[in-house]
Design goal:
Number of domains: 1
Largest sheet: 2 strands, antiparallel
Strand content: 5-15%
Order of helices and strands: HHEEEE
Distance between the termini: 21 Å
Shape: elongated
Structural class: mainly alpha
Number of helices: 2
Length: about 90
């Protein structure tokens, strides 16, 4: 569960990190308020939202059990716990 959360967090922060890297490479003041105008922050937020939405779609489409599979809940066999699985 932690991997999808960290992936989505990385997708959310990627545009801001890329812009900060761009400012650093171009020798601009990264922490200067003028470099982070509301127009730029709104554009970065929109890009982050699109990346986040795309990440959700990719995770929903390519992860999980295949269609038509059957879930077998966790149970005890011969005194040992057998984790839940799909067949």
């Amino acid at each position: 569960m932690i991997r999808p959360v960290l992936t989505e967090l990385a997708l959310l922060l990627a545009p801001f990190a890329a812009y900060a890297l761009f400012l650093w490479i171009t020798k601009s003041q990264v922490l200067d308020r003028a470099s982070w105008s509301p127009k730029i922050v709104i554009a970065l937020t929109a890009c982050a939202a699109l990346l986040l939405l795309g990440g959700f779609v990719v995770f929903a489409h390519f992860s999980g059990a295949p269609p038509g599979s059957e879930y077998v809940p966790a149970h005890i066999e011969d005194g040992k716990l057998v984790p839940g699985q799909t067949r």
